Amino acid sequence: MADRRPEPAPSHHVLPGGRGEAHLPAQQPPPGEAARLPAPDVDARRTRHPEVAPGQGSDPAVGLIWSIRDRAVFDRFRTDGRRFHHGALWCSWIADDAARPPRVAYALGRGVGVAGVRNRVRRQLRHALADEQRGAGLPAGWYLIGAGPGVDDGAAVRVAVHGLVERVRAGAGR
Fold first, then answer.
1. Nearest alpha-carbon partner for 138 in 98, 83, 101
2. Rounded Cα–Cα distance for residues 41 and 47 (Å)
3. Nearest of 102, 79, 72, 78 to residue 169 by alpha carbon
4. For residues 102 and 65, is the Cβ–Cβ distance under 8 A?
5. Please, where are the H alpha helices in the chain?
């Protein structure tokens, strides 16, 4: 038996006498419209428009009330703090004439609600205390404000804060 190779199938792309390679023109077609990609920044660490301030975060604090960050102050709340209650709110207050503006921290446990509720109550407390400071002013000192369950209504928080601050004012006069 003789070894016979099968003949290739006829193709329109094969030139006569060729080896089955397609004929492709060497020229490229004219370029179309360029892809719409943003231009790269020259310096990736800088913005393109440095004259405009970034729009992130909230407005800067006015400075009516400062926060408490020192661990020693929280220890002093246990020993030196005077406790006041009004409704579901409580306050531990340390009188200090040097604490101007007043320093405030918040203690909101899981009994108040889930994290979103606790954050909302903290914002409401902060806003109500700032209103009290703008109004008649808070007595100088350090405040640890806490809340129990059922304090998630903004109007109720404002009334409770006002009552709590009135009790602190009355206690400061002693």
1. 101
2. 8
3. 102
4. yes
5. 71-80, 115-134, 154-172
Q: pLDDT grade, residue 17 (50/70/90)? A: low
Which pLDDT does position 14 carry in this prediction? Answer: 53
Domains, the chain, in order of start with CATH, read 68-172 (3.30.230.10)
CB atoms within 10 A of CB 84: 21
Q: How many helices (H) and strands (E) does the chain have?
A: 3, 5
Which helix (H) or strand (E) element contains residue 143? strand 141-147
60 residue type, one letter: P
For residue range 77-133, what is the model confidence (pLDDT) as tens digits?
888 899 999 888 999 999 888 888 888 999 999 998 899 999 999 999 999 999 988
HEC per residue, 81-94 = CEEEEECCEEEEEE
Sign of CA dihedral 119, 120, 123, 125: negative
Q: What is the CB neighbour count within 10 angstroms for residue 158?
A: 17
C-alpha 67/C-alpha 155 separation (Å) is: 23
What's the pLDDT tens digit per position in 144-171?
999 988 787 778 888 889 999 999 889 8
Q: Which of 106, 110, 105, 80 is nearest to 95 (CA)?
A: 80
